[in-house]
Every structure is written in structure tokens, then in C-alpha cells.
Amino acid sequence: MKKLMIYGMLVLAFTSCKKNDIPAYSGENSLYFALAVDPPTPNTNEVRRDSATVSFGFSFGATDSILRIPVKVTGLPVHAARNYTISATGANGAVEGTHFDFAKKTFTIPADSLSDTIPLILHRTADLKTKTMMVTITLVPNENFVTKMLSETISGTTQVLSLNTFRVFFNDILSEPETWSEYYVGKFTVKKFYLMGKVLNLDLDRFSGPAFSQITFQELNYYGIAMQRYLNRMRSEGHTVYEDDGTEMVMGIGVQ
Predict the structure, then answer these.
(1) What is the residue range of 130's domain?
(2) Which of 171, 195, 217 is the last residue of a domain?
(3) Which InterPro entries match (predicted)?
(4) What is the 3-state secondary structure (H, E, C) of the chain?
(5) 27 falls within a domain
(6) Which residue of 26, 92, 143, 205 sits 20 to 30 Å from the alpha carbon of 168, by its own alpha carbon?
(7) 39 and 149 co-located in one domain
């Protein structure tokens, strides 16, 4: 089956220090979702988050989407693999085995590692054309790990992130992606979006799954400039491009 692959990016920061300066870790090993804790990748649209949205509307011909959700554990690595436990609950009609599955049944932090990914498979069913479904994945304590990292308020805001639950919303409805910036590419319309894909030969799948999108502001700026040049040329040749509402198609004010 054809799959739409979406990956999360992890950024690990290391500092050098003398061996004697490293204290021995004696606390409990706690699981958490890395996207809610790790700092975002620089120069991208990424933000810390405890959810993701996936739309099949951005993909052509894909029947499934694999979303890899990063998980980490506090403490120091050990020389043995350690299993961890999750639970998954569907909402708004999502049923495991019909609308979603997991690519593996056993979840393990590998030996000498502090991280893993949960591979969630989303199926492109007909009912996704009319509604958005949701899967909530929860990290569950077991004999190897606790889940005492529960939530955190982002500094300077009132936004509270869950560190041990992750929600995935998914549908087959084409709507404005979170990676869209009106400053560069103007008001979102389906006609403009598909035209951008055709004119610039873009892989529109990259706009799907905002939590893991690698679309940067620099790319959006380039897309806006290139598309505005195309629209200007079409107008000068007497083939002005109009939106479906009759207004002339234009890109964002940042590229005019």
C-alpha cells in the first residue's frame, strides 16, 4: 500500500564536562513525549506541542499515513532494552483496527538509548471526508518507567502542555495548513494551493502534519516570490489568474 511518511525531528543538545563532574542519576526514570518538551528546530515553523493534525487532503493516492511520535525517558541509558507501555483511545468515531493501528505491538527503549518512536498508522477511510477523528495516546507506568512528568505551562503564556498524553487529529479534508503564512503566500485557497504545487513542482504532502512539517519561513518566502512572478507574467500576457470568487490571485504582502 502506498504510504505517506511523516517524521518528527529531535534535537539533542550536549555539553562537554569532565567525567568527575557528572553526578550519578538516582531518580526514577520517567517517560514523556519529546515534542512537548524539546526546544523546536531553529528556523522552522515548529513549536512545542502535545498534538498533531494530519490531513489526507494534501496527498494524492496515499492510502495510509505513518506518524512517528518521539518518546524520551529521563535518567541515564542502561545496557539493556526496556519495554514501555501505552494506551490508545479513539474519539469522534475513530476505531483501532479500522481507522488506526500501530506498526508494532511492543514498545521498547533500546539498550544504551533514551528515546524511541511510536509508529501510528492512520487509514484513509471514506468517513474522513466529512469529519475529523482523534486518537489519544497515553504513556502508562510499568515495571521500568514512571510517568510523573504530567504537564507544563509554556513560559510567558497560559498554554498548558501534556507531557504524557499526545492527541492526533486526522481527516481527509483539505484545509489551511498550520505551516501556511499569509505574509508570504497570501490568503489560503484550495485553487492557489494546488496551483502552487503545479507551477513550483511542490510535494504538497510536506504541508501535512504540522507537528512534523519541515516547511521553513525561507521556503515560504521563496514560494511566495516565485508564485507572484508567475502571476505577474500571466497578467502581462493577458491570462490573469482569478480565484473562484472572481478576485485576482495574489501572494502575501511580504513578497510584493
Answers:
(1) 3-171
(2) 171
(3) DUF4843
(4) CCEEEECCCCCCCCCCCCHHHCCCCCCCCEEEEHHHHCCCCCCCCCCCCCEEEEEHHHCCCCCEEEEEEEEEECCCCCCCCEEEEEEEEEECCCCECCCEEECCCCEEECCCCCEEEEEEEEECCHHHHCCCEEEEEEEECCCCCECCCCEEECCCCCCEEECCEEEEEEECCCCCCCCCCHHHHCCCCHHHHHHHHHHHCCCHHHHCCHHHCCCCHHHHHHHHHHHHHHHHHHHHCCCCCECCCCCECCCCHHHC
(5) yes
(6) 143
(7) yes
Q: Which pLDDT does position 214 carry in this prediction?
A: 63
Last residue of a domain, one of 171, 203, 237: 171
d(CA 127, CA 238): 42
Same domain? 80 vs 158: yes
Domain-located, residue 176: no
